[in-house]
Amino acid sequence: MQEVLLIKADLERTDEWVAAFADFDVEVRDWNSPGNAEQIDYALVWQPEAGALARFPNLKLIFSIGAGLDHLMGDNIVPPNVSVIRMVERVLTAGMTEYVLYNVLRFHRFMPQYEADQRNQVWNERFQIPAWERRVGILGLGVLGGAAAAALAALGFAVAGWSRSEKTLPGVVSYYGKPQLAQFLARTEILVCLLPLTEHTENILNADHLSQLPKGAFVINAGRGGHCNEDELLAALERGQIAGAALDVFREEPLRQSSRLWTHPHVYITPHIASMTAPAASAQHVIDNITRLRAAQPLTHVADFARGY
Ligand code: NAP
Ligand code: GLV
């Protein structure tokens, strides 16, 4: 009997997902019409409700539609003994690299100031700082942080990254572990957050850490809203400790209307679009892993729930 893949995607994209598996030997079913629960072999999901996946007793693998796994970390979401594969695909990675480059260049080349000058019809030239004198620091040097770091290094920026374990990436200085965070922050003029949200990384963009950056530093958060203490960031912006912030993710999404972030003159908001999983490209990642499972080969990008990502 053909194996069954159940998909819980953004409703508007379900058709695209179904088409992406058209040539693969699997029957695709929509989350809202799963049929016989015992027949479901794989689930490809975004934000399933607690308890929902437990309805499928023969699940072999769960695929996260997002790179982040925080949507699967709550109690009773992932059934015991079922592995989760995180999303790694080139459209998602390329999109994040574009978002990071765009915002680093925005701050590096004084674009907010030039846009304000234009509104005031002011002709004001600023001296350019060479990229190699601009110190960019990336929190999280995984799939997305590593790709963004490589692209920034290729443009000549002075790039460093902070991760749990030491890295050797060409043109990127590696800081790792809690003891090296202070050193990393002290040298970072443009800070990019691309960490997963875990108990160890929650609130990392807080008053204490923001104050360890050089005065007038910039912050780019494309990790998760839970990484940022929004009130403390606003206070740091008010003091001029932080000169600008590009924020793609928020504690509450959509960002509530009453948030002062919306109207702050030095905050640049996007609605969690830094990068998006593309059905066609990601289907290949799913197909590769199902094929590996069928051939009893090691799987790729298996989530480690004990470490939280
Ligand atoms: P990843 O490959 O798992 O990389 C995570 C990185 O964070 C690794 O370098 C890891 O260190 C580091 N890290 C984790 N916990 C740490 C800790 N306690 N201290 C120091 N470093 C720590 O993840 P990814 O694919 O790059 O994705 C990163 C995050 O981006 C996702 O979890 C998601 O939240 C976010 N995201 C956002 C969007 C968006 O549109 N805004 C889109 C996709 C993803 P090691 O390398 O040493 O393990
Ligand atoms: C999006 O936020 C993702 O985790 O892929």
Describe the structure.
- By secondary structure, this protein is of the alpha/beta class.
- The protein has 8 helices and 12 strands.
- It has a 7-stranded parallel beta sheet. A 5-stranded parallel beta sheet has the order 2-1-3-4-5.
- Helix 1 (14-20) crosses helix 8 and helix 2 (90-108) packs across helix 4 (143-154).
- The mean pLDDT is 97.
- Residues 67-68, 92, 96, 140-145, 162-165, 194-198, 200-201, 222-224, 248-249, 272, 274-275, 309 line the site of NADP nicotinamide-adenine-dinucleotide phosphate.
- The site of NADP nicotinamide-adenine-dinucleotide phosphate has 30 residues, from helix 2, helix 4 and strand 7.
Largest sheet: 7 strands, parallel
Bound molecules: NADP nicotinamide-adenine-dinucleotide phosphate, glyoxylic acid
Number of helices: 8
Radius of gyration: 21 Å
For the record, what CATH class of the largest domain applies?
Alpha Beta
Arithmetic mean of pLDDT: 97
Element order: H for helix, E for strand: EHEEEEHHEHEEHEHEHEEH
Domains, number = 2
Q: What does the overall shape look like?
A: elongated
The CATH fourth-level homologous superfamily of the largest domain: NAD(P)-binding Rossmann-like Domain
Strand portion: 15-25%
Task: Give the structural class.
Answer: alpha/beta
Residue share in helix: 25-40%
Return the CATH architecture of the largest domain: 3-Layer(aba) Sandwich
Beta strands, count: 12
Adjacency order of strands in the biggest sheet: 8-7-6-9-10-11-12
Low-confidence stretches: none
Spatial gap, N to C terminus: 34 Å
User: Per CATH, what is the topology of the largest domain?
Assistant: Rossmann fold
